[in-house]
Amino acid sequence: MLQAMRTSQFDQSMTRLDLGVGQPGFDLLPWDKLAQAAAHLLPQNDTALLNYGLEAGDAFFRQELAAFLTPRYGYDLTAVDLFITAGASSALDLICTLFTQPGDLVLVEEPTYFLALRLFADHGLRVRGVPLEKDGLNLAVLEELLYEEKPALLYTVPTFQNPTGITLSATKRRKLAELAEAHGFLIVADEVYHLLDYTAVPPAPLAALVPEGAPVLSIGSFSKIFAPGVRLGWVTAGSRYLEKLAGSGLLDSGGGLNPFMSGLLRSALQTGLAQAHLAWLKEVYGRRTAVLTAALREFLPAGFAFDQPEGGFFVWVRGPEEMDTAVLLPAAHSAEVGYQLGHKFSAAGGQANCMRLSFAFYKEESLREGARRLGRVLDNRA
Amino acid sequence: MLQAMRTSQFDQSMTRLDLGVGQPGFDLLPWDKLAQAAAHLLPQNDTALLNYGLEAGDAFFRQELAAFLTPRYGYDLTAVDLFITAGASSALDLICTLFTQPGDLVLVEEPTYFLALRLFADHGLRVRGVPLEKDGLNLAVLEELLYEEKPALLYTVPTFQNPTGITLSATKRRKLAELAEAHGFLIVADEVYHLLDYTAVPPAPLAALVPEGAPVLSIGSFSKIFAPGVRLGWVTAGSRYLEKLAGSGLLDSGGGLNPFMSGLLRSALQTGLAQAHLAWLKEVYGRRTAVLTAALREFLPAGFAFDQPEGGFFVWVRGPEEMDTAVLLPAAHSAEVGYQLGHKFSAAGGQANCMRLSFAFYKEESLREGARRLGRVLDNRA
Fold this sequence. Notes:
Chain A is built from twelve helices and 13 strands. The first copy, chain A, has helices at residues 31-41, 59-74, 88-99, 114-122, 139-148, 170-183, 239-246, 249-254, 259-270, 273-299, 325-334, 364-379; strands at 17-18, 82-85, 105-110, 126-133, 136-137, 153-156, 186-190, 216-221, 233-237, 314-318, 337-338, 340-341, 354-358.
């Protein structure tokens, strides 16, 4: 029983191919690299990493992280631009605590990352969705909405969005920042997929508007580019926002959010292990994307469509308007295949004809087999 | 500059002996033991620790932790009784998010742990203090208060309290649980000092009332018994409370709060390293308590009093009623000694004549010298 309780309910050896699982496959987790990082760190006797750390995070780690991000984000970052978190969810939770009150309105993409909706609910926040277009948020709808509502913040996954894979265009990024400035709301940009580009380089992250004073809090994480279990991420934002995070009661009491793990990742960056892992992940995920999408083109029946993702973890499949992917799920499970229900990603009760698939968890042959099974289930639907 | 930004502003090599620092000395941090734990863990290739973990925490770690706590808490615990946190502050923050609404009342001890007050403020909570007696909370005052107020929760450090060192008696523990039951509030018991007894074994923790169905959430942590930088702790409580914690949006999205560090501490427990470190800490802290309190008895002028702590980190010194320790602090700093201001620990603007000292950070000779300097400052006060 304990073994079954180890991690999640997901297991690569199971017969069912659950393409809904949106986490890295166990074969992609860098145990050896972490062991090498430990071999680099442990002789250092750096006991500072075992005490209450600086609220914003170990400065040497932030320095390494800033050097890592500078070429990848496309502008100069230094240690003081970064606040270390225990992952993106930890960041979003802290932001909700400090920058919202229950009853406040949060705008999200429609569809959006479903677990962010859970987090907003825990903080008593109201949520409204803004539709997505091929190039990201529909800003015309957003502008109209801003005449009637005063949101506290807008939550977006601007690059390789979860669940759609859509990327917000450079023009819209700038326009969105202007709207936030004009209407006095914060943009919380969940940029955890930004570094996972496979076939097209995305526009500069929303983080890049921070030096210009845009009201953006940009969330990054090692979960997607190294390993979720390290529970380490970062926020970059204007100094007044970072100071609010670092000055919170949680940080004042607990110190930095994960000092010892920060030391391990500092070593992983200093030795190039983290960079090498990211480069390898991009190759593997790139191939998996190609395999899954090729198989979907082969096996999905008429009436089903998706946009080719250029990065990230996900493929968003849209079925005929009248279809409900929830109704079909038992048949899918009988055929030993699974997916995430589209409606989970909707703040408005929509998206029922959609499903989210991921190419992160399974190897290429399983992805193809999963797509084959899914195609058969969709073919045979009533 | 970065070096100065490493951890906290506190440094054992500084001239000033700041007896207000309430964290372990750098000489007490178990770097070698953590390296040994890593040598035990890393050959295991346990990649589950690098993925999103089970929300309640790795079950094998919880199993080890339950075995560790069972003799020390004095009742049988198993893995399912434990929810793993990223330290006590992380636990308290999550409890506030899930079990309170802004405007709710939190009862605290008067005086109480000052950084908990910060955390409650971030969650928009009202706070009222209940005076402490020699055997803990004044329950007569609490009962009266409960006729006029309906608190959401009562926050207590029942054993070797921060800042006073006071321990709630066994009788009062039971009575407090009855009051909570009768008046429908939660007891949040911050029991992080429970295992640090030096001269007297405390009553069973409030956690021990959980199996009887008491509305207690008991918070524990490795910060005081191993190292703050590992950011690992636990909550034990009735299953309906644990399910609420594990089912929160934060956990649903982020997985377990610190999976890889849980693996390291699992190894530290399995190899006996954590137990050995705790035993050693108790010896060291016991000696430091004796040295600091002996020096205070020698050097404090008439009119100053404290109760001999039997465990924990702190000595609470009470000065003459009319004195204000804030007024005296510049003189103390000129004499290269420091303390925590009493009023910080008050939810009611009181305790100005008090100061919190800690024997955790400095070695014995520094503690004695600090007490000597402090005595001289108090002697010479206007």
